[in-house]
């Protein structure tokens, strides 16, 4: 061959051969490397331990051999190849028995060394190893054979044997034949002791631990093939598992736990065990498989022995596919492989197990479909497959699971409809089919016991009907194509039923619901989140005593709602979005009396009117986002806003606010967005904007600001958006290069001259031509 693998040396105590490479010293002689720390070369020949008819070991792998082992290097038709580091010339010349000379008479070594050469047959398929043993001291800087230093050229095995006389050649032949006879005797004895067990060759493993075995035993292979009911071929995780059990583990197929051990080894190889984040104690031949890491849990089986009941391997960088052999773990109750990188499909064999209670393989990259035989496992209580790429429709057998409690298929590519069979799942508590591609009309009911229903982000149509019930905790159907009025459950026609209501989260947003919000909906005191945004609802938001008492999140944007802003609602409110409606009557004076309010969005209510209320210390710790753009507001920006020390976003554009920007706003240290464009503001732009080191967006256009723009703006490295024009004709000053750089770096866009204005110098702006308004 053009090149050959490096020779190998055998470490003391057995194990895989250790590859090494010769090195040349300054005299051109080959240097034998020193062994790794704590290792010495074994003086016994490797093949005396592991060379058997049918297999020859070389560098941790087994290769086929002829019937007579000595033919590997005495065949008249063989060609001998030198190690890769030797001179390869003449490596393909044929050698006959008459050409072979004697081995070196003596060798000198500081330790006993094995020097491995390799030879290959003329067919160039099997590769064999020839051992030369140096039992006497040898200088590690050079090998001495009969007093001569072996150079790179002389190391060519062909040149070495050719230079020996015939009488020594014959001695070599006799010695080698004698050794072959001893080997055959040892093998025969071993076979008799093991019930004539046969050793067969293996191929290179696809995924393997560092100490991959060199051969496997036919008894182990036959037992494994009996378990999987088919042929086990090289290059598969099953074949690797058989090899490991044969050579590293030393397991006997007759052991009671052989099947269980085989399955876990297959699982290791099938999911890339060598790359796991945590693989401590896995494939430890000295431990019971139930003690292979924290991922495996076992219980005592009444029939005897410890049996695997839990396989919990979360966030462990598992790659590959889920092996069907897991179905052989007949006591398995819990399978959790969440948050890994598993591919392929769910094995159908898995659901032939009748012991499985929990299957959680969420957050992987699984494809395919839900196995149609899933209904066979009557004990299945939790099926969590969310965040994969599983498609197809729900199998009808799924609806026959008598104990199913949790069904989470969210964030997949499921299609088809949700049939009325879902109501047959009497024990179902959670149904999550959100973020799929399902369509069709919703069933009238999903059962009275379901606590959580999430059907968001699909293509469901039609009415909700009675699908929502008072006893549910969460009901979300956002981002569908549902029509009609809001569910009748929200009407609470009989107030005596209020104590039975447990609804906490209702999300009906982004559909086509019309009509009004039922008056009694606000009396459902259990409600925490109520989102009806982006529909076609009209009328006022019901208010009054005992309405919305415990509401925390209220979304009603993008509707046709009228009336006044209902600030008599919950004192627990943290999020309120009433934007894009037709509210009137101004912002209530008690607005800032909501101590928990963090986000208040009211923009695009052009007929709202009124002023911005004053603020007191009550609001100091909470309010982060105040968006009151396009609300027809008048008056000024209140000086008391400085108490909002956590305010990050203030948007009041497109109103009729006058006066100047209060100097007190400089105390808003975490402000990142300040939009007051398109108002009637005047006066200077405060210098403190240059001290706001979190400022990202500053919009001041279409006002009447005057004087010099603050030079301190050049120090704001976080700025992504700046507008000073149109408007503000009496502003002066210069935009520095650092400001242009910050805007481009943070937004990806250049700062345009049209956003700066006519009277301000900006050499770094993207357009040097003056805007039309300046001409």
Quaternary organisation: single chain
Q: Whole-number radius of gyration?
A: 40 Å
Largest sheet: 19 strands, mixed
SSE class: alpha/beta
The total count of strands amounts to 44
Any low-confidence stretches, pLDDT <50, length ≥5?
1-16, 20-25, 27-32, 39-169, 187-214
Number of helices: 8
What would you note in describing this structure?
This protein is of the alpha/beta class and 775 residues long. Helix content is 12%, strand content 18%. It is built from 8 helices and 44 strands. The chain has a 19-stranded mixed sheet, with no helix packed on it. A 4-stranded parallel sheet has the order 39-41-43-44, with no helix packed on it. Helix 6 crosses helix 7. The radius of gyration is 40 Å and the shape is globular. It starts with 7 loop residues before the first strand and ends in a 14-residue tail after the last strand. Mean pLDDT is 78; it is low at 1-16, 20-25, 27-32, 39-169 and 187-214.
